[in-house]
């Protein structure tokens, strides 16, 4: 049975652009990031242990109760807070950076 990349053209392009070692290192880093967040969430029983009553599709409620993580003050709660907010901060930061770059080029 041969494996085909045809169903995922973006991954195929990334694989070619990055090369074998960098591509798989990136995939390993993404997997580690997901495992870390899952472990922190499960081990802290977040967000239920911090006041949430949500049972399904709780993404927005998870962010709402994230301030409770800071109030608790342990290393794991700080780590989960950072894990939760790093992706939105990176997206907003990238958007602002590109916007400012585009504005400076047009002048």
Architecture overview:
By secondary structure, the chain is mainly alpha-helical. It has helices spanning 9-18, 20-43, 59-64, 66-72, 75-106. Helix 1 (9-18) packs across helix 2, helix 2 packs across helix 5 and helix 4 crosses helix 5 (75-106). It is extended, with a radius of gyration of 19 Å.
Summarize the structure.
By secondary structure, the chain is an all-alpha fold.
List the defining traits of the structure above.
about 0% strand
How are the elements arranged and paired?
Layout: H1 9-18, H2 20-43, H3 59-64, H4 66-72, H5 75-106
> Count of DSSP helices?
5
N-to-C SSE string, H for helix and E for strand: HHHHH
Structural class: mainly alpha
Average pLDDT score: 87
Overall body shape: extended
Helix content: over 70%
* Radius of gyration (Å): 19 Å
Largest sheet: none
Oligomer: single chain
Proportion of residues in β-strands: under 5%
Please count the beta strands (DSSP E, at least 2 residues each). 0
**Which stretches are poorly predicted, pLDDT < 50 over at least 5 residues?**
none
Euclidean distance between termini CA atoms: 56 Å
